[in-house]
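Renewal narrative, Specific Aim 1. Our central claim is that a sequence can be written position by position from structural information alone. The example that follows is taken directly from our test logs and has not been curated for this report. It begins with the structure tokens describing the chain, in the order in which they were read.
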């Protein structure tokens, strides 16, 4: 499989796949990094953790819903162009998150950022599907999802450390800057040739009338409820026991 992949992958494609892996890592880092910082943000803004957690919930909701919209845009605008536009907008949302004056604006900024980062991983998966032969596609897909998983793990560690020794605002600004850098380097990626865009409603109908597709959606919904719900609040519980934000993030990552 490894030899087949090397023979089927040009240097340009290999470079594109590495960029997509960084994009997946950054997207997941940004998605989960608020978890260890909820207490810190609440303390600085003199609000409850419950109030700040609305920003995390809004991010996750917008992240999920926006993927449908980005899919339709990608079929018409192109895979690479769509990801670049989304990352530039994510940069704007991330920088706005770093400078918000109150909770209301934090909720708005995080929701907007989540909707924009929603294009990164699905866009990467579809790009692999468009550019890598079927017989060797599993390896780059695995690498992409591995980068995504590592991003989730590192988010609870890295954001906790940044919040402890600098500021939670620095953490939001960091992923924003990385998103902008990624958008720049994606300009060197080759745009796959696309056919006529499929009809939107027929595509949605095809998914909703497919038994296997509905089963996958149900399983992913259950997985998301179990994983993202408790994982978001675990650092808060650990921090409430008297441990630092950094240690809370480390325990959550473990």
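The sequence written for that structure reads:
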């Amino acid at each position: 499989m490894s030899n087949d992949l090397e023979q089927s992958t040009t240097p340009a494609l290999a470079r594109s796949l590495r960029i997509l892996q960084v994009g997946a890592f950054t997207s997941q880092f940004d998605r989960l990094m608020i978890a260890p910082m909820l207490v810190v943000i609440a303390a600085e803004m003199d609000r409850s953790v419950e109030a700040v957690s609305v920003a995390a919930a809004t991010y996750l909701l917008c992240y999920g819903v926006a993927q449908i919209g980005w899919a339709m845009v990608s079929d018409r605008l192109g895979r690479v162009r769509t990801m670049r536009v989304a990352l530039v907008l994510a940069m704007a949302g991330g920088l706005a998150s770093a400078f918000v004056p109150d909770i209301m604006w934090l909720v708005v900024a995080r929701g907007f950022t989540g909707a924009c980062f929603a294009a990164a991983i699905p866009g990467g998966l579809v790009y692999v599907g468009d550019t890598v032969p079927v017989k060797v596609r599993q390896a780059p897909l695995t690498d992409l999802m591995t980068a995504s998983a590592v991003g989730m793990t590192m988010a609870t560690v890295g954001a906790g450390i940044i919040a402890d020794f600098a500021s939670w605002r620095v953490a939001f600004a960091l992923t924003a800057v990385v998103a902008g850098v990624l958008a720049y380097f994606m300009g060197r990626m080759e745009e796959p040739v696309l056919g006529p865009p499929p009809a939107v409603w027929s595509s949605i109908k095809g998914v909703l009338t497919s038994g296997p597709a509905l089963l996958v959606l149900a399983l992913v919904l259950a997985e998301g409820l179990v994983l993202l719900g408790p994982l978001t609040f675990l650092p808060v519980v650990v921090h409430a026991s008297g441990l630092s934000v950094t240690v809370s993030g480390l325990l959550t990552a473990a």
